[in-house]
Amino acid sequence: MAIVTLLSDSGDSDHYVAAIKARVLSTNPGLTLVDISNKIAACDIAHGAFVLKSVFRDFPKGTVHIVAVDAGGNKGYAFIALQLEDHFFVSVDNGLLGLVSDKPHQNLVELNVINPVNSTFPEKDILAPAAARLASGVTLSSLGTPLSSFKKMTDRHVKATKKQILGHVVRVDSFGNLITNIEKEAFDILSKGKVYTLQFGSEKVRRVHTSYFQADQGDCFVLFNSLGLLEIGIFKGNASELLGLSYDSPVNIIFEE
Amino acid sequence: MAIVTLLSDSGDSDHYVAAIKARVLSTNPGLTLVDISNKIAACDIAHGAFVLKSVFRDFPKGTVHIVAVDAGGNKGYAFIALQLEDHFFVSVDNGLLGLVSDKPHQNLVELNVINPVNSTFPEKDILAPAAARLASGVTLSSLGTPLSSFKKMTDRHVKATKKQILGHVVRVDSFGNLITNIEKEAFDILSKGKVYTLQFGSEKVRRVHTSYFQADQGDCFVLFNSLGLLEIGIFKGNASELLGLSYDSPVNIIFEE
Amino acid sequence: MAIVTLLSDSGDSDHYVAAIKARVLSTNPGLTLVDISNKIAACDIAHGAFVLKSVFRDFPKGTVHIVAVDAGGNKGYAFIALQLEDHFFVSVDNGLLGLVSDKPHQNLVELNVINPVNSTFPEKDILAPAAARLASGVTLSSLGTPLSSFKKMTDRHVKATKKQILGHVVRVDSFGNLITNIEKEAFDILSKGKVYTLQFGSEKVRRVHTSYFQADQGDCFVLFNSLGLLEIGIFKGNASELLGLSYDSPVNIIFEE
């Protein structure tokens, strides 16, 4: 039986998350529900997109993801269901889904067009039933009317040249580790045969580790993490607090021959 | 297979919630467990009652709800199982369940009377096994001895006349939105053909929205939410902080011909 | 179908917990996942060990526990799977598992020896697949190479004589209750026929309660809790804040003839 995941900014002290789950299970009690996170910062599409992008491919193909971050939406925003990299997503078209993959979508419909529901809680009234039906084997096309495109936003880009890579912190995780948008692939190509210096805050570092524990306790580590992204941390410490860096702080790599 | 939900003030950093779930699954590993919330404020019956009341009907009929807020109880409080609106509830009789529905109960027993267990963790030792047995098809009557009534508390009432509705904030949700006890039904009747002014904090508002996004970013919205209750918020902002209102703050509606 | 539990310090606002679960469900979608807690304080082995020790036996025998606290490990730490008290555990050998039971292990292997994976996210890449396979019926011995022992740390001991018991707070729970390492068994033997005084902070108490509600609201209670450990609290209050005690604070019992 298929898996339905939930990503939201609804927190864990209200009825919202349980209401969405109840609606899914009322449609099909045999579905498996898995929380991705309900503690995305309120209306924080960048945070939500980062978490979803980092994990959705770990689920089996065919998994249905309810994406309910800033789901109240804005005027004119559509509710959509789409198939992308063999996963299904239901969401409000607020740009979040446009950030999770560069691949073209395989299928896309607008929800809530036939017999539209006017709801102030669309996660429960529109997204949850659509997700439950998709996970129960209903085809995506039958859930709505075809749509040709959905909202794409431009994510912060890394500037990479032969002389330097200019990136940013894209997520401070709950350990205080600083995850950047600098990819291992680009670094490997550009650093070949070069001496390099990583600069962030007031720190200058000249090596990249391969394990967290290559740094001593209290010392800074820099490595490419399981997402293939450059990550900066303090071994057994909170790097964000100790280095004074946070979301969007610049992280640069300078190459010399 | 039936669903067992859990509502508690036990938090998420101790063994309590897992111990309750382990006991349920030890009795019947086929049951589906769903957290309503374990982040009800410690011993806060009003918070717990609001969340439970707002969501229990979204679950399929026959769902069993473990209600373990302030479950340590007080001297002389009984442990009860009851059927209400075709749902089952197991709880300590501390008044919380008396706040979730105006309907008469369909069935009510006192638990832990035959071979009583003396426990400092009754959620696990008394409520969890009773819930698991109920969800497995055991009849409520066979779980305890009949009881004629359970504890009812008087909730804060709304004062509604032709001239005004005087209500209060009953819940500040995790977005900072202010949910009041003013019901759409009463407002619709009393506001018919009238000019009205909503007053809360230092704000005066003369319209009710139907969508969150009818307000501009940073502006105040006022609408009847999915629970049919008047809700005040700041679009993409935290109304509780920005308006200086919190639990129990008065919200009034004045009608003029 | 077997249960897989998860204990981690990964928090609830990142992709880590969902990634571990996704890997388990990708291996076997029929497994039942239960969170013990993902809010163990970062790298806090004492916190993790206390929670795990307090709850693992409540799960059915054969349950598989993923223990991912401070899982980044240290240089030379092995990944292990072991059978203990008829439960299965997969973890990094950082000492946490050595604190949860005094019983000898029934079986122990080192994971990730044959075709080792070099991962900065071993919870997902090493522990999750091992747990899923164990829960699916694969034998522990076939998961790795035999190991004779795993890391044991010495926990803070209670000093108990005929004159006194000297203990400490080992956990402040989310209610602010202070759980100590003083066991009921020892107290029952040593206090027989004696007058006793409990001392903690500036308090002196001469009785032990059997229910939380034997104290009046705002008053201190002292009882042996469901774990058989001496617990100090304030009825409907936060004892840690009100008494100024926290993790590791001394709690003594003095006996007089």
Task: Provide tags for this entry.
alpha+beta, 5 helices, homotrimer, 7-stranded mixed sheet, 257 residues, elongated
Compose a concise summary of this entry.
Helix content of chain A is 19%, strand content 31%. The first copy, chain A, contains 5 helices and 15 strands.
Write up what this structure looks like.
The structure is a homotrimer of 257-residue chains. Chain A has 257 residues and is of the alpha+beta class. Chain A is built from five helices and 15 strands. Chain A has helices at residues 16-27, 45-55, 122-135, 184-191, 239-243; strands at residues 3-8, 32-37, 64-68, 79-84, 87-92, 107-111, 145-146, 159-160, 164-172, 178-183, 195-200, 203-205, 220-224, 229-234, 250-256. In chain A, the strands form two sheets. In chain A, strands 8, 9, 10, 11, 12, 13, 14 and 15 form an eight-stranded antiparallel sheet that branches. In chain A, helix 1 (16-27) runs parallel beside helix 3 (122-135). The longest helix of chain A has 14 residues, at 122-135. Chain A is elongated, with a radius of gyration of 21 Å. Chain A starts with a strand and ends with a strand. The mean pLDDT of chain A is 95. Chains in contact: A-B, A-C, B-C.
